[in-house]
């Protein structure tokens, strides 16, 4: 807005100042000048004709570059910084107040299969890609202020270069893993009435008493949908960026970057919490994604409805053909 | 020290593209990279106007502000240069630049743009002045030889002026006063946050 007012001011000034010196030979500004001024006033690019093959060069001035700069240097830095550092602060407070969430009644010694090998493998493919994508992405915004002073320009360029390459290529296994996640877990992530009760009860994170929950509680369903939908948005906008100007023009590229980076920093903040509660924050949780076998008491505490369902499956299952009646030997 | 600027008097530019050719030749710029270009507005219609545009060596340059690896630097003459050995070819400077000045050797799928290249104001780069390494990476260093950028030197109508901002603004001001009209200094408001008051 400020730029437009300045431009308008300059136009008025030009219009007012020129005739004074024109001494009767004043000419109206050319149509092209007026068009260019109109474009700048409305914040649109000044576009013309060019005789070289690169048609992007026909954009004479694109004022949106400034807005994108403002976004990249100010908005993104603040949103990203507050999201990630804020989440770390929340987790620190949570840890001090609540401590590590124990298994009520201790471990039973009996386990139940929570995730099979394909689910775990896929989870770790997505997770490892995400961590590298997140670090190399954060590096593009914050590395210059955080890492560059520590390692010096040559090493920082090397790190950023390999980070960029990793970012561009790991996008593909990451997206593939998201598709698998969607197919594997969507049936257990449809929101239902249990989720409302779980949320009303604070999910057992605040206060006492763990609300009822199926295979995934409302918090986990939230993580699932943030991963799938946020991941889809990040993937689509990311592919726009990795094939520059193939799908869109300069403003589309800027918009892709804005969508990509804002959703990405918010996802990073969410995943920091996910990593915390899945590892050091909760006793018995990490086994779900390492061995796939969780302690039965942990499962009953956090996913009682799911345990009942699994147990019912076992009770209702037909015995194998080779099974013999007890005491038949 | 001087504050080096470009000033394009679009009332004089005849779209001869000599500046483009001079730049290409002097700096041996590879195919596909155009450090300078001429854009024609309202082509073929009354009031057609051509503008020769390159890096304007902005005050508080947007490219330098957004560069993730901080590879830009400004010389004592306020010329905006960059270090190709540090550039990672991310393309951010092109998104931020109002003038479309940054160029890349390739289209850049999968981040393969290569090192960014742009107008150096014929001032080379961070390598030793007029060394072979500097020429290969950045082209000529006429500034070190006490000369101005060749595009402006070659301009047949002197539509394109290069030099200290105060001096070229004064030349332009006198022109406009003598002939009685002027479209203003192209891009100055965007690049230098000022315009030439007549």
From TrEMBL, chain A:
Its cofactor is heme. It is found in: Cell membrane. The chain crosses the membrane at residues 76-97, 124-146, 166-186, 223-246, 258-277. The keyword Signal applies. Residues 114-292 form the Cytochrome b561 bacterial/Ni-hydrogenase domain. GO terms for cellular component: formate dehydrogenase complex; plasma membrane. GO terms for molecular function: electron transfer activity; formate dehydrogenase (NAD+) activity; formate dehydrogenase (quinone) activity; metal ion binding. The keyword Secreted does not apply. InterPro entries: Cyt_b561_bac/Ni-Hgenase (IPR011577), Di-haem_cyt_TM (IPR016174), FDH_cytochrome_b556_subunit (IPR051817), Formate_DH_gsu (IPR006471). Residues 1-22 form the signal peptide. Belongs to the formate dehydrogenase gamma subunit family. This is Formate dehydrogenase subunit gamma. It comes from Neoroseomonas marina.
From TrEMBL, chain B:
Residues 4-34, 78-107 form the 4Fe-4S ferredoxin-type domain. Keywords: 4Fe-4S, Iron, Iron-sulfur, Metal-binding. InterPro entries: 4Fe4S_Fe-S-bd (IPR017896), 4Fe4S_Fe_S_CS (IPR017900), ET_IronSulfur_Cluster-Binding (IPR050954). The keyword Iron-sulfur applies. GO terms for molecular function: 4 iron, 4 sulfur cluster binding; metal ion binding. PANTHER family: PROTEIN NRFC, PROTEIN NRFC HOMOLOG. This is 4Fe-4S dicluster domain-containing protein.
């Amino acid at each position: 807005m400020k730029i437009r007012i300045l431009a308008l001011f300059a136009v008025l000034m030009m219009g007012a100042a020129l005739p004074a010196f024109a001494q009767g030979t004043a000419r109206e500004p050319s149509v092209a000048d007026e068009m260019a001024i109109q474009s700048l006033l409305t914040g649109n690019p000044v576009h013309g004709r060019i005789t070289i093959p690169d048609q992007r060069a026909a954009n004479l001035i694109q004022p949106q570059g400034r807005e994108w700069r403002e976004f990249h240097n100010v908005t993104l830095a603040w949103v990203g910084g507050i999201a990630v550092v804020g989440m770390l602060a929340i987790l620190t407070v949570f840890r001090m107040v609540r401590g590590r969430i124990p298994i009520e009644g201790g471990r039973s010694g009996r386990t139940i299969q929570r995730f099979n090998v394909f689910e775990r493998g896929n989870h770790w493919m997505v997770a490892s890609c995400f961590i590298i994508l997140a670090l190399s992405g954060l590096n593009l915004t914050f590395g210059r202020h955080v890492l560059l002073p520590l390692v010096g320009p040559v090493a920082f360029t090397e790190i950023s270069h390999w980070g960029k390459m990793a970012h561009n290529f790991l996008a593909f296994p990451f997206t593939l893993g998201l598709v698998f996640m969607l197919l594997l877990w969507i049936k257990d992530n449809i929101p239902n009435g249990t989720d409302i009760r779980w949320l009303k009860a604070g999910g057992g994170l605040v206060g006492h008493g763990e609300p009822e929950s199926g295979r995934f509680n409302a918090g986990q369903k939230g993580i699932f949908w943030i991963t799938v939908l946020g991941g889809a948005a990040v993937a689509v906008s990311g592919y726009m960026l990795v094939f520059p100007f193939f799908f869109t023009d300069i403003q589309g590229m800027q918009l892709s970057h804005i969508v990509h980076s804002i959703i990405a920093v918010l996802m990073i903040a969410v995943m920091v919490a996910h990593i915390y509660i899945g590892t050091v924050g909760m006793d018995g949780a990490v086994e779900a994604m390492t061995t796939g076998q969780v302690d039965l008491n942990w499962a009953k505490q956090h996913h009682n409805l799911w345990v009942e369902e699994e147990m019912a499956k076992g009770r209702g299952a037909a015995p194998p053909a080779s099974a013999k009646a007890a005491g038949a030997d | 020290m001087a504050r080096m600027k470009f000033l394009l008097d679009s009332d004089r530019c005849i779209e001869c593209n000599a500046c483009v050719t001079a730049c290409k030749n002097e700096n041996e710029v590879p195919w596909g990279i155009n450090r300078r270009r001429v854009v024609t507005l309202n082509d073929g219609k009354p009031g057609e106007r051509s503008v020769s545009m390159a890096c304007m060596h902005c005050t508080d340059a947007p490219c330098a502000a957004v560069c993730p690896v901080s590879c830009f630097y400004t010389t004592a003459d306020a010329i905006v240069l960059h270090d190709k050995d540090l550039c990672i070819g991310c393309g951010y400077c092109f998104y931020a630049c109002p003038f479309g000045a940054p160029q890349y050797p390739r289209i850049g799928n999968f981040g393969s743009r290569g090192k960014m290249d742009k107008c150096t104001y014929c001032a080379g780069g961070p390598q030793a002045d007029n060394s072979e390494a500097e020429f290969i990476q950045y082209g000529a260093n006429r500034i070190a030889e006490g000369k101005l950028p060749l595009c402006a030197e070659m301009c047949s109508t002197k539509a394109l002026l290069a030099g200290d901002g105060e001096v070229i603004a004064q030349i332009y001001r006198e022109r406009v006063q003598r002939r009685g009209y002027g479209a203003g200094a192209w891009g100055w408001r965007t690049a230098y946050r000022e315009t030439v008051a007549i």
